[in-house]
Each structure stands twice: as C-alpha cells, then as structure tokens.
C-alpha cells in the first residue's frame, strides 16, 4: 500500500513516517515545504520513502505528485500550527491551512482518488469546553485564527465528501508530545529552557486544561482509522490525560528541577480555558492508548537531553 502524507518534515508526521516504516510494509510518499518548523534531518532517507519538496498551496505541484504516485491513502497534515504565531499574523495560516487543503482535495478529486483521504485537524476547533467532553457532532466554535483556519479546512473536506463523494475522514487530536517537536511549543520550550537555565513563561494563572497524548499513541489511532475508519466520519483522538498547564510544569520539575525558572506572564489573547474530547467512536475501532503520560514525558525529556543538535542554534 502506498501512503501520501503532506507535512512530514515537522514533529508529528516525521515521527509517523519512522513508525510506519518500522511497523508496516507501506511505501511512504511525502510532501513538505520545509518551513522553519521542518527539517530534512527529520525525514528518513530510505528506499521505501520518497520526498517531494514543495508547497501544498501550489496546485500544479500537488497535481503532479498525485499523477506520478497514485496513492492508495492520503493523509493531509501540512499546516501552520502555532497559535501564538497566528495571533501575530494569520496570513500564512489562512493560505496554508485553507488553500493548501483545497489543493489536496482538488487533486484527490480530479487527478487520482484514493481509498481514503484523512484530513488532520485539532480539538481546538470545538473551542473552550467548560465541562464534559466534545463529541464529533458538536458545533465548531474556534476562537483563534489558527483554530478558525483548521475548522475551515474541516468543513471544506466534509463538503467534498457530501458533494463529490470523496472519501474524506477527519481526525481531531488533542495536544501531542514527544521527540522532534519544535521548541516554540510548550513542552519542548519548558524542557530546553530548564536545560539552558532560561526563564519559563507561563500564561495567566497556569490553570488552563489540556489533554495530552504521546505521539506514538496518535499513530496507533491513525493506523486504526486507515484500516477501519469510515469515509465521511470524524474521529476524536486523545488519551484522556487531562492536566492543567501548571500541573504539567510541576511534573517536569519533579523530573528535572528548575522551579526557580518559572515566571508567570500576561495571558494569551483569547486563551481557551479547557479542551477535552470524547473518543468513544475511535475506541469502537479497537484503539486504546498505550503510553502513560508520566512515562512518555520522561522519555521525551530524555530525548531532548540526548539530542541537543535538534534544538541548539
């Protein structure tokens, strides 16, 4: 089976390519623009993996890849994802997250239609959840430029299923963590700031709640969705490990020290208080998380300690 994945030089899907090459017999074809958040060093250079360097917003480029490769499965993951950056300037988010999704959908519709087109999204499209858990059928209430563009991409993909019968599946995942995540993100920033004895900024009162999933558990979910997911459906992905930001910091401090580096800063604009999703539909496919939060966090810290080449500039 041949899998085409957009956005493989960054955090989640560079790890996914490594995972898939080790645990499946799939051939992997990648598309990546190599933005600041991606690196060729993240991309395996092996026979079963082919990389095309280019922009998903360039329809002629995307069309050519579909013509040559004719993938069985498409995973569209290329996106701008850092919320803080979207608040400073949303242009790249609208272009990549919406126009890029449109290019991929158009190529899948008009050039080569795969068995499944998996559109990777985020739990942030549901907006802040005061209590309970977001269901796949809940109204989307994105509250940042980032999550708004991802919600737009969600709806665009679902419209191609309804209108054209394109076999689109949407996944909405909670906060991933693990090796190779850019240091602008919360956990890598905390870990590397402790290692370099720099201040650790914490927004607001630190009590914003997030669900955390180790990146390998996300992969297990995606494999189940590739194998058994139904076109037209949406699947939430999360581990159920829900923690306040300050709780996460205290867990890291217990492992590494560094409490004296903590610095409370003004809250982020439009900072959602809590995300939490219901994963019953995914669990019905036979998936369960395998990696406890604390164990996976220790492994992640160990990786950043051992791979200073990745984050030292």
TrEMBL record:
<protein>
    <recommendedName>
        <fullName>NAD(P)-binding domain-containing protein</fullName>
    </recommendedName>
</protein>
<feature type="domain" description="NAD(P)-binding">
    <location>
        <begin position="4"/>
        <end position="299"/>
    </location>
</feature>
<dbReference type="InterPro" id="IPR005888">
    <property type="entry name" value="dTDP_Gluc_deHydtase"/>
</dbReference>
<dbReference type="GO" id="GO:0008460">
    <property type="term" value="F:dTDP-glucose 4,6-dehydratase activity"/>
</dbReference>
<dbReference type="InterPro" id="IPR036291">
    <property type="entry name" value="NAD(P)-bd_dom_sf"/>
</dbReference>
<keyword id="KW-0456">Lyase</keyword>
<dbReference type="Pfam" id="PF16363">
    <property type="entry name" value="GDP_Man_Dehyd"/>
</dbReference>
<dbReference type="GO" id="GO:0009225">
    <property type="term" value="P:nucleotide-sugar metabolic process"/>
</dbReference>
<dbReference type="InterPro" id="IPR016040">
    <property type="entry name" value="NAD(P)-bd_dom"/>
</dbReference>
<keyword id="KW-0520">NAD</keyword>
């Amino acid at each position: 089976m041949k899998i085409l994945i957009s956005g493989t030089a960054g955090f989640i899907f560079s790890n996914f390519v490594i995972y898939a090459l080790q645990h499946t017999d799939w051939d992997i074809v990648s598309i990546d623009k190599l933005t600041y958040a991606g690196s060729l060093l993240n991309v395996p250079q092996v026979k079963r993996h082919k990389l095309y360097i280019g922009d998903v917003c360039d329809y002629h480029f995307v069309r050519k890849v579909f013509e040559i490769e004719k993938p069985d499965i498409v995973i569209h993951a290329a996106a701008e994802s850092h919320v803080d950056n979207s608040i400073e300037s949303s242009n790249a988010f609208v272009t990549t997250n919406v126009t890029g999704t449109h290019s991929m959908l158009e190529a899948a519709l008009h050039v080569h239609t795969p068995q499944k087109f998996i559109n990777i999204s985020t739990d942030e499209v549901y907006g802040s959840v005061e209590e309970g858990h977001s269901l796949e059928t809940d109204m989307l209430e994105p509250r940042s430029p980032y999550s708004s563009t991802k919600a737009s991409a969600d709806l665009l993909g679902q419209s191609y299923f309804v209108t054209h019968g394109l076999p689109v599946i949407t996944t909405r995942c909670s906060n991933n963590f693990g090796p190779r995540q850019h240091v602008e993100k919360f956990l890598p920033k905390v870990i590397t700031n402790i290692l370099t004895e720099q201040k650790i900024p914490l927004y607001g009162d630190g009590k914003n709640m997030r669900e955390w999933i180790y990146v390998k558990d996300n992969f297990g979910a995606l494999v189940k969705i590739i194998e058994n997911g139904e076109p037209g459906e949406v699947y939430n992905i999360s581990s159920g490990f829900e923690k306040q930001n300050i709780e996460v910091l205290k867990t890291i401090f217990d492992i590494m020290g560094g409490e004296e580096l903590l610095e409370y800063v003004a809250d982020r604009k439009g900072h959602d208080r809590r995300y939490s999703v219901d994963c019953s539909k995914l669990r019905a496919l036979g998936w369960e998380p395998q990696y406890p939060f604390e164990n996976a966090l220790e492994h992640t810290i160990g990786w950043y300690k051992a791979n200073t080449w990745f984050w030292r500039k």
